[in-house]
Amino acid sequence: MQRKVTDRYLPPDHAAFVAAEPSTGRLIVIAPTRAACETIELALGLRIPTLLEKQHGREILALAAEGKGFGIVAGTGTGKTLSIRPIAETILATDALKVGVVNREREATPETPTWNVIVVTTGIARRWFQDGDILPTDTLVVDEIHQTSAELELCLALGKRVGCRFIWLSATVDPTFYARYLNAAAVLETTAFDPSKAADVKIVRKEPLTFLDDRFLQQVVKERRGVGMFLPTRAGVEQAAEQVRERFPRINSAFYHGGEPIRVIRPFLEGEEKKPYFLSMTAAGQSALNVQGLDTVVIDDTRFSNIIERGKNVLTRLHLGANEILQMAGRVHGRVAGGRVFILSDRDIQFSSLRPTAPEFQLAGDSERVAMTCADLGVAADQLDLPVPLDRAAYRRAVTLLERRGIIENGRLSRYGKAVEAMPVDRPWAELLVNADDELVPYLAVMSSIESLHRMTREDRDLSGVLVPGSDHLTSYNLYAEAFSRCGYIGEVYGLPRHLFDESIEKWAEQRGVLVKSIEDAALASASIYRSLGLELPTRMVNARDHVFRKFTELLAQYMPFDLVIDEQTADGGEARVSKTSVCGSWGPIAGSLRYFADRSGIPRAAIEGTQIPMELIRRYATRGKVELIYDPRRKHGPLILKGSLEYFGFELESEVEIVEDFPAEHASEARQLLAAAVARGEARHLAVKKNQHAIEEIREAYKRSGGETRRLGLADLTALYSDQLKDVNSMEQFRATRLVVDRDQFVSRETRDRLAALPNTAQIRDREVEIDYDVEDRDGERQGIARLRIPEKIARTLSDGEIPALDRPIRFVVLRGQRGAVRAETLEELQELLAQPWSPDEVAESEDDRAMLSHAEREVKRIAGEFRSHRQRGDRNRSRHGPRHGRDNQRGGGQFRKRRRGR
To answer: How far apart are CA 816 and CA 833, in angstroms?
Structure first.
């Protein structure tokens, strides 16, 4: 029985909320994070003179009063967030602002309709759009618009669809796109840059830990500097801080990244930390922080970003963009006297010439989110004016998946889909929560709130006593359960119950190698899940053992909402290894999250972390596939077979094959069609294949030589001809005995054949006999005959127009290059340009009908080229498969090779 789910972040009474809309509309402020919501709420209660107000105060108020959309691009410390208050007062025509916040820890309430300024995160703003709570009269203020995300970009498209006015605030980026896309009347740019405080910028070709040598750190101590180092990874941040702490205890050293609570660096933010100090941070972690006393910045010119490749998010190592470098350096450049900036890079960067660029959008990698949003609204994706073109192939795959899972029906969210959509977790976990019984809810609520065991723990973790072999999910739950049992209690935040933790959590986390912030975030998220399900928070957390493992794996096997890998292979045959931080074994079925990353050569690899499922459960919920009739030319005896299979979410677990001699009544027509097609392709073991080949080629050649005047004998035509002659055949024995005939005169008369055969087969060029291939072109619905000269490459490169022979039809050119394929061109000039290229142009995909009509020489060239490419690809795959493996080979299986079996 499916659960009833309530979305606690929507106004409880939609009608009352819409009816209370003030005549001026509301001001809806969209913030990128929960912490940003709190900052904005604080700013809306302050009146502090700012640089932005000094430079553009009158313009901002004038634009706000005129009802125009506009943008503000300003650096850190200029006061752009503080400008939201005067903008709100001008638009709402009142200084009595009633401000409310709705985010992960603060729900919508019955008082929400009374608010005229509402601050929401991007995900909640999207839900409000879907519920119809944001109206055309509302003004959208998008803070930190440069912090792109799929949710934010959907909100921009949905806001345009509703017809809202946009006011947007951004750090230093090129605002051209936003100005055009959001129809901005003006873009006001402000900077706190003081030329007299320009920093000394140096490009250094060193790795971060190597850069932090004694010479640099002694200088930090001597000059009593405040140093901030920006690194791309959590591990790098911790290693840098630890190295400085060990070697120079006199330097106050700390680190901050997304896995740490902000309180750990509170002294740096409030100016209490004495110099010299060293603070290492991830690039993402530092973006909204203002560190007091900072005068030196060290930037590692590296970032890891998701690049969309064939619908997959591939984590790829890249250099920093101009925006990131300018924003990081801008912490001291032009703001602090005697500032220094070190950029650690292997490339030559001209810092003075760097200019802001347009942001990089994330929407293309979240086609499933787009599909569910569009289904909830009842619109097609192409009806939304998205900031970036949607990957339509990935979008169609997402829609197909959601339809197969019963979430989308007839283009709209089903009742089940609406329950899944209302859950404040990702779709796979939402499906499990909606379908699970009460006993599993505490486990699922916590597991769905933890991004992964890998991101929850450090490299030197201790999992003794909490490890659930074969399940990263349940192991992460046990860590949370232990943290709550030892350090937790139930309290309230903003009037809502939540698991809270005392100060002893820091010591416990240090011993276990767990990130405190992951525990606190899981407490927040799981509390919101309980409220959505209408359940009370548990006061006691019990560790997951064998009983829970069995129930959890059975639920997974029954619904399988996750990615599935069996014996390190995906359903489409791709390779996916078990993550090196996983507690799962390498073999058997694993359900979890596939993550793609680019290796050092830039080749996408896949890794999975999740839960192993016993094979007997997979078989219990597998389904019998449709029985198929197949003609397999590789089978010398009994090529016609009936194939049945046992399938499970795209995997073929086993197959059953039955040789067909006498055609079953329900498959007889299909069997005749298959056999006719096999004879037409030349694959069947039948006398007619060889006997009719000359007649078939003669008919096809006549069609080409006549310029399309005679009947065409393509593969479909030939199949239909044979199928008609097999209409009374009911067994393979009768098929082999049936005489199949191709009558030339039925397609072209003898007189016509003789006339067409008289056309020249070769032409004389430079004392060489050059073969002529006749063909038919179809352009704009009109057919015309052409003659294609098959010229040797050496002659073609230097041939002139005067040497081309005159024929009775237009001339085309082809050069056959063996394993490199063929080069075709309409003119001699085009041919010579193509031959000058280092590679032959990719061959256009052709239908079987088109391939059947090719000349024998061209078919041979295509065959050779295809075999060459296939051989080269196999070699690449073998090199990647048998090359150095990263991860778990030496940890599991004793290094022994096991044959992969797709069918059992």
So the answer is: 15
